[in-house]
Each structure stands twice: as C-alpha cells, then as structure tokens.
Amino acid sequence: MDIPRLSPKEALILQALVAKGEMYGLELVKESGGELKRGTIYVTLGRMADKGYVESKAVPQDDGSGMPKRLFKATGYGSQVLHSWEMASASLAAWDGR
Amino acid sequence: MKFLDRILMRHWPLTRQSLFLDRILAWRITSNATFTLTACSSELKRTLPEAERQLDQLWRAIRALERLRGVPRITSSLEHQQRLSFSLEIYYDVLNFNLSQYSKLGGDVGAWFSGFPQAGTGDLSSPNQRERTPTAVITAPPGCSLRGLAELIFSPKTCQEVFEPICRDLFDEYCEALKQGKIWKARVALVRNYWAFWSAVAAQAPVSAVKVIVKIWKA
Q1: What angle do CA A9, A15, A21 make, to 5 degrees?
Q2: CB A72 within 8 A of CB A58
Q3: What value does the mean pLDDT take over residues B167-189?
Q4: Does A39 touch chain B (CB under 8 A)?
Q5: CA of A68: how far to CAs of A40, A63, B168, in Å?
Q6: What region does B6 belong to: left with phi over 0, alpha with psi -120 to 50, or beta?
Q7: What does the alpha-carbon distance between residue A38 and residue B202 come to, in Å, rounded to a whole number?
C-alpha cells in the first residue's frame, strides 16, 4: 500500500478546510496570510482532488456570467491523512528534541 | 469592432444617438455584476416610460451579442412580458452602475436621470464632453478569452477545476471594483488575475503533458 504524501501547502489547505468546512479558493488564499498564492491554489487543489483529499462542487451564480464558483471541502480520507500527518510530524518533532 | 458596430446598427438603430446606452450595454456585458437600487429603479419608471420601446431594441441587441463567441448567454426562455422587464432590469442595473462609476455626480439621482440618457462616455456633466464622445466599445466579459484559451489547451476537467475558478475570481474582483467606481482597482485586479492565470498554466502544463503522454503510451 502506498503511504499518502502531504506537502506543506497541501497540509495548510487541509487544515483550513477541516477547520472551516467549505471554502472558496480565494478565501483559502486570504486565510493563509500569503503562504498560498492565487496562481497555484487551484492547481494544488486540483491535484488534491485527484488524490482524493478534497472534493469540490460548482455553485452556480445568478449573474449570467456562465462561470460558477467552486466550493472546496476536505474529504474524510483527506481529514484522516491530515490527522496522520500531524501525528507523524509531532512524533518526529519529539524525536528531534531528544 | 466593426462587426459589433454593424450588429448594433442593425439591431439597435439608436446607437449613434444613444452612445451612452451603448456604453451601458457594454458595461453590462463586460461586468455582468448585479446592482440593485430600488429608489433609482422607481425613479426611472416614473420619468422614463418611453424607454420601454427602446429597451425592446436593446434586448434584440443583447440577443445578437449573445450569439458571438465569448459572450455568455444571458437567458434563453423568457416570455415577451418578462423579456421587457428583464430589459428594464438590465437598464436600471447598469444605470446604477454608471452612477457608481461617476460617483462625484451621483449625489442627486433625480437630476442625473431626469431625461433619457444621451451620448456621452466621459464626464457626463459637461455638455461639451458629450459632443466629443468616442466610439463605444463592446467587449466580452473579462476572463472570457482566458477561459477559451484554457479550454483549447487543457482537458474539460482541468478547466473546470483549475482555470474556471481563476476566471471567476478575475470576474468577481473586476466587477466589484467597478461597482465601487474604482477603475484603477479594477485594472489591478485584471493584472493580478492574469498573472495568476499564467502562473496556473505554467504549473499545470507539465502535469497535463505527462498525463497525455502516459495516456498515449498506454493506448
């Protein structure tokens, strides 16, 4: 079985999504305080969706633009991966401190 | 642009006399933002009943514009009565928008809209300015061309998940800035989101290329 990997940016996104529930991409960028860039946030989210960490849904906008907004949320699997990643990080940090 | 001009002239004979409306139409299509100002609407209903006939022509112009590539569909199945009210809504919305754009003039709404809008795209308080009206320009909403480009290069799934949200953000920020009458803020939003789009292309292109190669390899 492949062990799921989580980059620091993916962890940051998952943390925000787990904490806040559903969020738009731009909200994630603002929430991160500059750590996430608007140019790469959707690419990262797309990859995370491929891995099954997040899921998204289109929210149609009633303004005739034909462009829906996309709302992202963490999947159960994503939350589990984040939890494991945080535990592993804490464990390794403790090992480092010895 | 000549093509657009021709369409407008055919479907909307008042174009030359109503460049201000033309401008409004353009802004409506480029911004597509939702603006509501009830007081302004009721004021207009009282003072501009004759506008309804002309708004029907406006509607036809919009239908013509909808058929152009890049301009999103506004709506497709409205009855005549609804159509008219829809046109009126558009009209009010964009008037309100223009009111916010020229906020320095917006103190007295009644005075501003006491008559049918005449030609003029600059400082509308100055009659001289009205005479030197530049040709109105109709463009697709911001982000439309980027979206079209992304659809050409990337898969539909990638477009939906990666590029459509970027175009949507561009659209939202641009319209929000225009709504506040901050032209420079709108321009900054454009530049910032164009940069974001091309950053996303640079980040996504290698991944998509590898996916395509793997797909071909497996086939």
Answers
A1: 125
A2: no
A3: 79
A4: yes
A5: 19, 10, 7
A6: alpha
A7: 13
Instruction: Tell me if chain A has a CB within 8 Å of the CB of B189.
Output: no
End-to-end CA distance of chain A: 31
For A57, phi and psi rounded to 5 degrees?
-135, 150
The answer to whether A62 and A54 are in contact (CB under 8 A) is: no
Is the Cβ pair A45, B160 closer than 8 Å? no
* Token pair 């940051």: residue: A12
User: Cα separation of B70 and B49, whole Å?
Assistant: 33
State the Cα–Cα distance between residues B118 and A4, nearest whole angstrom. 64
Place of tokens 């709302």: A71
* B residues 159-178 closer than 8 Å to A (CB): 160-169, 171-172
Mutate: best of B168, B190, B198, partner A, most A CBs <10 A = B168
Residue A19 has pLDDT above 60, yes or no: yes
User: Is B209 at the interface with chain A, CB within 8 A?
Assistant: no
Q: How far apart are CA A76 and CA A26, in angstroms?
A: 23
Condensed to tens digits (0 to 9), the pLDDT of residues B35-93 reads: 222 222 333 333 344 444 444 444 555 455 445 444 344 333 333 333 334 333 343 33
For B136, the 3-state DSSP assignment is: coil
